[in-house]
Write a structure and sequence with these properties.
Order of helices and strands: HEHEEEEEEEEEEEEEEEEEEEEEHEEEEE
Distance between the termini: 65 Å
Strand order of the largest sheet: 6-3-8-9-12-15-16-19-20
CATH architecture of the largest domain: Sandwich
Strand content: 35-45%
CATH class of the largest domain: Mainly Beta
Number of domains: 3
Structural class: mainly beta
Oligomer: single chain
Number of helices: 3
Length: 382
């Protein structure tokens, strides 16, 4: 039996040996040789014979010119600048500007992306990228990101505009540097119009560095980084939404918001604001309790304002995603909505069965975790 197994392995040869290796495709120009290809792409050109294990070539002579073809190369052998990420999914209009090129072009499914390539998502678009080392980037609508920017070996993504979520991705923005501290760290980063960066950690923990200061943000917390300023102390994210009874309280002190779906219509029922009758006495502060900051006080510290507004995480809007699968690998709708706005999925999607999830966004713009996927039927009886 042992002899039989060894014989089978010998027959399988290179194909079996390389089955577990991650391969990347490069395009060979007519006239290229194994020597020239190895000198251009491989960290160690002397290992040109490794290419024979993964490709059927007309000749094993490294000096013989090859026809134009796609060549599979183990990622571990490639020079850093040629190591690719892969576009694993995209929705609607996503554009690519390859390194060294000024023009934008449309992307294609499962295409390779390279160091210093720039991705751009238009309104309603999304791009999911997986790096060869396992980091993941989810680029949301109206965003721009540079992959593995040149001159910074400690950065996976330079977020130029918009919003992203990442797994283990090291991210730089105009105002902050974000470094995951655990292998399973998941976080979001959002750039506001004034270039302020909002960092939200959903799992694990991350260091946020700016203005000569580093703040560790744990799971379930967020930090705000203004231009040329250090990061704020961590504040709690909005609570996880519940489709039956969301516990996040309103700034107005009104009813608890209810997240409902009916006939393909999604509603976040915020309740009606509670009006204080004229002349009614306001609740008196507890003399023994902590002093509540006055927002009209010009001397009020910015950190106190953040702390005050964050109490109760009043809901400003919500982030809705709809997918054909529970893993949200094939997202078909991804958009933020005002908290009082109803969404009729029947007008947005073809009839069928989908899954949806929601994350709440507070007044500071911090976005909480997504809810568990919930099945929703579109195009059924209303």
């Amino acid at each position: 039996m042992k002899r039989l197994i060894l014989g089978l392995l010998a027959l399988l040869g290179p194909a079996y040996a390389g089955a577990a290796e991650e391969l990347q495709t490069i395009i060979v120009k007519p006239g290229d040789t194994l020597w020239s290809i190895s000198n251009t792409y491989l960290k160690d050109p002397k290992r040109w014979n490794e290419l024979l294990k993964h490709n059927r070539l007309p000749s094993s002579d490294p000096s013989i010119a090859l026809p134009g073809m796609a060549l599979k190369v183990p990622v571990s052998l490639l020079k850093e600048q040629y190591r690719a990420a892969k576009l694993v999914y995209f929705l609607n209009e996503v554009l690519l500007r390859p390194s060294g090129v000024s023009d934008w072009k449309g992307v294609s499914a499962s295409m390779d992306l390279f160091k210093a390539d720039t991705l751009r998502t238009r309104a309603g678009a999304r791009a999911d990228v997986k790096f060869y080392t396992g980091e993941i980037l989810n680029l949301y609508p109206n965003s721009i990101a540079v992959l593995r920017p040149p001159g910074d070996k400690d950065t996976d993504v330079r977020l130029m505009a918009g919003e992203m979520r990442g797994l283990r991705s090291r991210v730089v923005t105009a105002s902050a540097r974000i470094t995951p501290k655990t292998k399973d760290t998941e976080f979001g980063a959002k750039i506001k119009d004034d270039l302020t960066t909002l960092v939200q950690v959903y799992k694990g923990k991350a260091d946020v560095e700016a203005g000569g200061k580093t703040v560790e943000v744990p799971e379930g917390f967020a930090s705000e980084v203004r231009m040329d300023m250090p990061p704020s102390n961590p504040v709690k994210l909005p609570k996880l939404p519940d489709f039956d009874a969301t516990r996040t309280q309103l700034a107005s002190g009104g009813k608890t918001p209810q997240l409902t779906t009916s006939g393909g219509v999604v509603s976040l029922n915020m309740g009606k604001p509670v009006r204080q009758p004229a002349g009614a006495d306001l609740p008196k502060a507890d003399p023994g309790g902590a002093k509540v900051p006055d927002l009209n006080d010009k001397a009020l510290d910015a950190a106190e304002i953040v702390k005050l507004i964050s109490v109760g995480n009043p809901v400003q809007s919500y982030h809705l995603q709809v997918s054909r699968d529970q893993t949200f690998a094939t997202t078909v709708h991804d958009k933020n909505y005002d908290s009082f706005e109803d969404i009729n999925l029947n007008d947005l999607l073809p009839p069928g069965n989908y899954y949806m999830r929601v994350a709440l966004i507070d007044l500071l713009g911090f976005e909480g975790k997504f809810s568990a996927p919930r099945p929703v039927k579109v195009g059924g009886p209303r």
